[in-house]
C-alpha cells in the first residue's frame, strides 16, 4: 500500500521553512544548506587589450547572474562571496593575436592574489595556425565567507601583431557554492 503526503511547505522543528512548493510541482529549497548559492556568471562585453607576455586580470564586466551581489563587475573584477564553503569556479579566456601569431596562452584563477589553479596551452612557434584560441580553467576552491576573493587572469605570448582578450561568451568567469560537501 502506498501513501501520499500533500503539503506546500516542509518545516523543521523550529518552524523554519526547509522546502516550499507552488502546487504545480515546482519545489524551492529554502534552507541555505540545500542551495548552491551564492553564484555568479559574467562575461567580457568589449575587447580587452593586453600586453604580450604579461599576466592581465580579466575585466568581465557584464553580469548574467550575481546571486548575493558579491561580484564586482566595475572596479576590481573579483568575486568575494560572504558565505563560507566550497565553490566550483570556472572561466575561459578567448585569446587573440590580432594580425600575427602566438606561442602560448595561460589562464589562471587567483585566490587572494595567489594562483590556485592554472591551465596553459603551449605551441610550437614554427607551426602555422590561426590567431585565436580559448583556454578554459575550472576547480574547487574553499572560501572563508569574509575576506577570501577570486579573480581570473590571462597571459598570451604574441610573436607578432597585437594581443587581446576577445569579447564574447567564450571569455567568461563564474562560480557557485557546492551543496553537500
Short description:
The protein is mainly β. The protein has strands at 9-11, 17-21, 27-29, 39-43, 48-50, 56-57, 62-67, 85-111, 114-122, 132-143, 150-165, 172-177. It folds into two domains: 1-35, no CATH class; 36-177, Jelly Rolls (Sandwich).
Provide structural commentary.
With 181 residues, the protein is mainly β. It has strands at 9-11, 17-21, 27-29, 39-43, 48-50, 56-57, 62-67, 85-111, 114-122, 132-143, 150-165, 172-177. The chain has two domains: 1-35, no CATH class; 36-177, Sandwich (Jelly Rolls). The strands form two sheets. Strands 4, 5, 6, 7, 8, 9, 10, 11 and 12 form a nine-stranded antiparallel beta sheet that branches. Strands 1-2-3 form a three-stranded antiparallel beta sheet, with no helix packed on it. It starts with 8 loop residues before the first strand and ends with a strand. 27% of the residues are buried.
Number of strands: 12
Q: Quick check: average pLDDT?
A: 89
Shape: elongated
By oligomeric state, this entry counts as single chain
Structural class: mainly beta
**Total tally of structural domains:** 2
In DSSP terms (H or I, runs of 4 or more residues), the helix count works out at 0
**SSE string, helices as H and strands as E:** EEEEEEEEEEEE
Sequence stretches where pLDDT stays below 50 over 5 or more residues: none
Largest sheet: 9 strands, antiparallel
Q: Report how far the terminal alpha carbons are from each other.
A: 36 Å
The CATH topology of the largest domain: Jelly Rolls
Q: Report the radius of gyration as a whole number of Å.
A: 21 Å
CATH architecture of the largest domain: Sandwich
